């Protein structure tokens, strides 16, 4: 029997790494009307969700496996699930790449005047092929393990450190930076998405870093941190 692990992947070929996108509901009727106009969106009564299909308007999206390479008997492929709860809408996806494509796709086809992206929650680990979890991602994102990141608090801490370094000429800024960069990411974290200010690139970079670290941990390099990623990007760090 082989002890070699196999990485779990989606039908469209990406590494499975669950992510939930949170939207602020601006106009429920408008949202449902626009969902109804999209052929790639279908309402699943049993699951009380709107499923996003890899078909019709979304067929041109480029994943690891193209639409045409997926056997016909496997279509339609569900690539995401929308849930409406009160004034909040969230989209559950099983890969970071789907999330990066979903945000601009739905900004174009649904619009911020119906629902506006605000946050993302991610699972900072990847899975072996034999691991299974429910279709509903509440198992992760309603867990007490989820840590909500406050960027304003982080910015205030950095500002405080900068002021301390100005006041103390012997302040070891590099050691503080290294220590913070070596802190592990939470297993599950939620943080703001600034798509309307920054576009998709800042979120894409944040997700890529987390996937690199998760992949190293999956391979057994459990001490691998953000600092190690930076060392590959900044020679001499």
List keywords for this structure.
237 residues, alpha+beta, eight-stranded mixed β-sheet, 20% strand
Structural write-up:
With 237 residues, the protein is α+β, with helices and mostly antiparallel strands. It has a domain at 19-148 and 186-207. Helices cover 36% and strands 20% of the residues. It has an eight-stranded mixed β-sheet, with helices on one face. The radius of gyration is 20 Å and the shape is globular. It starts with 18 loop residues before the first strand and ends with a helix.
Shape: globular
Question: What value does the Rg take, in angstroms?
Answer: 20 Å
**Distance from first to last alpha carbon:** 42 Å
* Percentage of residues assigned to helices: 25-40%
The average pLDDT score comes to 90
Number of helices: 8
Topology as H/E string? EHEEEEHEHEHHEHHH
- Strand elements, count: 8
Low-confidence spans: none
Output the structural class: alpha+beta
Please give the largest β-sheet.
8 strands, mixed
What proportion strand? 15-25%
Query: What's the quaternary structure here?
Result: single chain
Which strand order do you get reading across the main beta sheet? Answer: 2-3-4-5-1-6-8-7
